[in-house]
Specification:
The protein is built from five helices and two strands, in the order E-E-H-H-H-H-H. By secondary structure, it is mainly α. The protein has a two-stranded antiparallel sheet.
């Protein structure tokens, strides 16, 4: 291929404003042609090598009722799969009514905070747990859909303190109860 080394990587001429090598192999794409990493993932959402057994990924763009969202997210949290629970919350955040988006975004941040805490990224995990608790604060008096917002926020802040000073946590053992 013209302009490519025998390795399949394009090399840009000096002075072209590029200082990197670009791999010209095809990217993984979904059915609509959007770039999407098809590598299998573990329960914490980390990519595994192609061909390795992984956990089933959550389909994107699923519109669920709030009750269905909470039930599916709780199942995933209890199974130690907070990354996948975050994807369920993200669907609700993107498809739900405008006045509830912060609720679902806050829940997604809690799930990602637990993910990072379980992966050993204590600073990032603690930051996201606190950010999620803050996003939920406006809903504390309402407890929408039976979500015990105050208790969930307390859980997130307490876990943030623990992960900053300790080893990675077990995601399933630390899974919060979303509803009473």
């Amino acid at each position: 291929m013209r302009g490519c080394s025998s390795s399949g990587f394009a090399r840009f001429p000096a002075g072209a404003g590029h200082n990197r090598v670009v791999n010209e192999t095809r990217r993984d794409r979904d059915a609509e042609g959007r770039a999407r990493n098809a590598r299998p993932r573990d329960g914490l959402g980390r990519p595994l090598p192609y061909g390795a057994p992984g956990v089933e990924r959550q389909p994107e763009g699923v519109v669920r009722t709030p009750a269905e969202t909470l039930t599916e997210a709780q199942r995933l949290l209890d199974a130690g799969m907070p990354f996948h629970a975050h994807e369920v919350f993200e669907d609700a955040w993107k498809s739900g009514p405008e006045d509830e988006r912060e609720l679902w975004r806050g829940l997604a941040q809690l799930a990602v905070g637990l993910t990072h805490s379980a992966r050993g990224n204590t600073a990032g995990g603690a930051r996201l747990l606190r950010r999620g608790a803050g996003a939920l604060a406006p809903f504390a008096d309402a407890d929408p859909y039976g979500i015990e917002v105050a208790a969930l926020s307390d859980w997130a802040r307490e876990l943030a303190v623990r992960v900053e000073s300790g080893p990675p946590v077990d995601a399933a053992a630390e899974a919060p109860r979303l509803r009473g």
